[in-house]
UniProtKB/TrEMBL annotation, chains A, B:
Protein name: LysR family transcriptional regulator
GO terms of molecular function: DNA binding; DNA-binding transcription factor activity
Residues covered by the HTH lysR-type domain: 3-60
A Pfam family that the UniProt record links to this protein: LysR_substrate
Tree of life domain: Bacteria
Keywords: DNA-binding, Transcription, Transcription regulation
GO CC annotation, single: cytosol
InterPro entries tied to this protein: HTH-type_LysR_regulators (IPR050950), LysR_HTH_N (IPR000847), LysR_subst-bd (IPR005119), WH-like_DNA-bd_sf (IPR036388), WH_DNA-bd_sf (IPR036390)
Record field: transmembrane: none
Family statement drawn from the similarity comment of this UniProt entry: Belongs to the LysR transcriptional regulatory family.
Length: 294, 294
DNA sequence: CACACTTACGATATTCGTAAGGATT
DNA sequence: AATCCTTACGAATATCGTAAGTGTG
């Protein structure tokens, strides 16, 4: 009662070759199979697509008018499913990532390179934004994947830890704090401090910890870019605290770092996914690569 | 290995209702059938279209992107086959007829009315042209059907007789020939003659017959329109010969007719079809109606 | 008789519905 | 307990290939 894709393929092959025998080779079917498929199709549409003369087939006017429609139908069909298949076989696709600047610059270059080698035709789009925006983008489906600190109370987001980072004190060379193997958080209050963006997750961590040890930073100024913090410290304006991953990015002559202790803070970093928006195949592949990376 | 139309239907129904149970009602299938069809489709395309959470289904990004494509695919599919079905069920279509002017005006009005009553949505297009042009139009597929005299030596045309006509002598009232019950061809030569277009099949018939009886018409003039012939005869300019079908069309006061004998000619009229171009369903229906008409 | 399409028939695959089995609210 | 999805299984259907049949050049 219902025409099938296969019947459409048969019709097109027969119409183009005007012969069942030749069509059977194109479609990789036996000649009788072609004959029957064509007959079934004609029963389905309620009339003859071909006029059977003695030894050859001729398209009826209806068949002739239907042929281009059938070709378009089949092409659209194939194209649609090839597209879909490409996406699932990760030969095509797009992944949008929202990552903390620290991770965007720190973890990303290596991961991106590996991913691009594995799936060269998948497009990667990276947004380096702050933690709250990351949560929002993942929540709204504007990003497939977030790379950030745990999202806290958001029950529509999942967090999967990937690596742990720690905070380090960053000082200009020759600074007294560098004489120690490690620096206690409480000691930071004694020096001018170069802060990073108050909205950033690390800054909020830092403020919270200082509060918990009962001290207050002597903040000289805040910078939005980590590199700026590095240069200001190198210039001797003050000291700072950075996640060690961030420090690695700006490590240059003139500054040095010491681990921060009392308390020793582990900063958990990982992947954020939405519960409401399932990950695409490409995004899942990237997640798996990130998991396997460490 | 190959997705099916039914699987596409299921996918769309599930995507729109976000529930297998509800989709099963739309598609008129059992719930397990929906579940399996969806799973098969996902196997076919190589990835998940839905993310199965505890009790509800959520489209994956791939499924979400595919949904509008699937809808378009299915709509195109349905539309194409509905069109085709309409053509075969004669609910739509077009028939182009090439007919001799005699038949176009004589046979046609009744047949057209019957056909249009039976198949109101089929478009009829009529070309009243001469016999040679009819043959050419049918041969080239520009007309589905010819209504004419037998096409002679054309082996790519078929002729099916429908009715026979005879020739009549047409005279103004009071003309001496009207005194007889029938007129012999040989008697025509004695009076001024109003001819019809030399290229028309009836004229060629007439000339041939006159030659065979060894007489020559005294041709006053030729007219292209049969109505013109009628008026000229009525005006007393001369007599004429017309197929009786044609005479009926122009029968008015002032002219009368008598059958032509010696020889008694039967003019065969019928349908011309192409051997190379099979008739459309609509054209076949018209042919059948014409056959049944007499 | 060779060629091209059709029919016949048995084997395989797909699809469906009923019934039973989880899992979640 | 109720709801929803999944799995299991037997039946109906569809599709295919081999083989035999039909008709034309």
């Amino acid at each position: 009662m219902n025409p099938s894709i296969q019947q459409l393929r048969v019709f097109i092959a027969v119409a183009h070759s005007r012969s069942l025998a030749e069509a059977s080779e194109r479609v990789h079917l036996s000649q009788p199979a072609i004959s029957i498929a064509l007959r079934k199709l004609e029963e389905n549409v309620g009339g003859a697509l071909f006029a059977r003369t003695s030894r050859q087939l001729v398209l009826t006017p209806e068949g002739d008018a239907f042929l281009p429609v059938a070709v378009r139908l089949l092409n659209d069909w194939n194209e649609a499913f090839e597209d879909l298949n490409d996406q699932f076989s990760k030969q095509r696709g797009k992944v949008t990532i929202a990552a903390l600047p620290t991770l965007a610059a720190g973890l990303f270059p290596q991961v991106i390179r590996l991913f691009h080698e594995a799936y060269p035709r998948i497009n990667l789009s990276l947004h380096d934004v702050l933690a709250e925006q990351i949560n929002q983008m993942v929540r709204e489906g504007r990003a497939d994947l977030g790379l950030s600190v745990p999202p806290g109370d958001a029950d529509d987001l999942t967090f999967e830890p990937v690596l742990e980072d720690s905070y380090v004190a960053v000082c200009p060379c020759g600074h007294p704090l560098l004489a120690q193997p490690a620096v206690a958080w409480g000691q930071l209050a004694a020096y001018p401090f170069i802060g990073i963006n108050r909205l950033s997750s690390s800054r909020q961590d830092i403020d919270r910890i200082m509060q918990s040890v009962g001290e207050r930073l002597d903040i000289l100024c805040d910078a939005r870019q980590i590199a700026t913090v590095g240069r200001m410290v190198a210039a001797g304006l003050g000291i700072s605290v950075l996640p060690s991953l961030s420090f690695r990015q700006i490590a240059t002559d003139g500054i040095a770092h010491r681990p921060l202790v009392e308390p020793t803070i582990r900063r958990e970093l990982g992947m954020i996914l939405s519960r409401r928006h399932p990950p695409s195949a490409a995004a899942s592949a990237l997640c798996q690569l990130i998991r396997d990376h460490e």
